[in-house]
Amino acid sequence: MLIAKILKTDLKKIIAIFNREIGRFVFFVFVLFFDSLWFADTLTNSQLFINILMFAGFFKMYFRSTPRVKTLMIYAVILGFGGEYLFSRGLDMYTYRLENVPLYVPIGHAALYGRIFMFSKASVVRKHHKAVEQIFAIAIAIFATIYLIFFNDVFGFVMTVGVFLLLFKRPKDRLFFYSMYILVAILEIGGTAFGAWKWPEIAFNTFTFLPSNNPPSGISLFYFLLDVGCFFIYTQRHRVAWKRLKTIRILNA
Questions:
Q1: What would the DSSP string read from start to end of 18-61?
Q2: Residue 88 and residue 95 in contact, taking contact as beta carbons nearer than 8 Å
Q3: 111 and 25 in contact (C-beta within 8 Å)?
Q4: How many CA atoms lie within 13 A of 94 on its CB side?
Q5: How many CB atoms lie within 10 A of CB 241?
Q6: Looking at per-residue confidence, does 126 or 252 come out higher?
Q7: Number of folded domains in the chain?
Q8: Containing structural domain, residue 68
Q9: Which pLDDT tens digit goes with each residue over 138-187?
């Protein structure tokens, strides 16, 4: 495996960056306990508390980010709101505990997007991106297969296959989306375990030939839409910078 060829010093740096950029967001999974069924039934509904906490975390990360990441985070919030209402309230793809769209969710999408962007752009990670991609791909394949075999998660497995197919001819995007797949999987497992949201037993509560686990494994496939949307808006609003970047890529090809 390629990961075995990485110098220990570089491997430690990669792990440290992963813990810093991704690990901090994973902490939010435990915060979802305050939006859990148990907490709401036993103590009180504290969704407001989580909303405030997520806003605080978002702005802290926003003001520490580069101008490009700041811009992408704003776009992610806007698209996140639209996507959540479409998939949750419109298409019945999943349902939140109060059958609403909590404010912390689209804000969380932006924070997730920003963390993964910074991790995937770190110099030492880019230097060894093939090794990182390989180990992430193996972990994803094992995870989706276990879900398929033990939880009959056909929907999640199909989406995971879709992730691999979409990235087959997009090697520059693999690191970003493999990282996103893993983080989204962790977030989904925590959120559904607490009962903050749930997925129906079949895809979109409609397609009986696509049985689904709660949660399905490959939901990060739909995060492609968020990334594509953010990227499209960015290129349209920053056409001069985008043309300059394309020229540099052509010259370096």
A1: HIIIIIHHHHHHHHGGGGSHHHHHHT---HHHHHHHHHHHHHHH
A2: yes
A3: yes
A4: 21
A5: 12
A6: 126
A7: 1
A8: 2-252
A9: 999 999 999 999 999 999 999 999 999 989 888 888 999 999 999 999 99
